[in-house]
Amino acid sequence: MTRRVLVLAVGVLVLLAGCTGGAGPGDSQATTEMTEATETTATATGTPTATSTPEPTPTAEWSSPTPPNSPTQVDEEQVQMGRISNVEFVNTVEGANGEGYSNFDLSVQANTTMEDVDPEHGTVDGEPYFVVLIDGKLVERTKLVLEQEDGQYNITVRGGALTNFDAGTLEVTVLLMDEDTQNDDVFGRWTGEIEYNPR
């Protein structure tokens, strides 16, 4: 009788040890899934994770834009119409010691309508775009712009273009152009000055 009780007790202990002991054959996968679920939850709830800081991308070097098809022709009658009614220096960046500007963009107000301007065909609309000259040097050229009687156009002047100039007063010229297959025409002109002072 005592022997039977001992065997039964040992069997119960073995069963209990199996329930509370090490992982069985199927427990490894369950443990892995539990760990992955915990990590996913931690990420979803905003727990910070280590990430590498990307290296800053180097600034693309400035290169002179494609010049108009030349020799360009000035349509004096169109220029005299005052097609470029206003130009403002915008997005200005103060130069060293707060004097002058180290960079700027341009906001141009202009009549860019070019209906029936092609002299050869007479019924073909023009293809307007702008160029920017600084001290006579081409620094920017826009893509073709929308034709509008009173349009507002923003022109970005890339900082790399300005590094070609010394500090001092720069003469800035904006030309409204009509793109042609051979000679592009000048339809509008504006000239102003800005004090350039690199950082």
UniProtKB/TrEMBL annotation:
<feature type="region of interest" description="Disordered">
    <location>
        <begin position="20"/>
        <end position="77"/>
    </location>
</feature>
<protein>
    <submittedName>
        <fullName>Uncharacterized protein</fullName>
    </submittedName>
</protein>
<feature type="compositionally biased region" description="Low complexity">
    <location>
        <begin position="30"/>
        <end position="64"/>
    </location>
</feature>
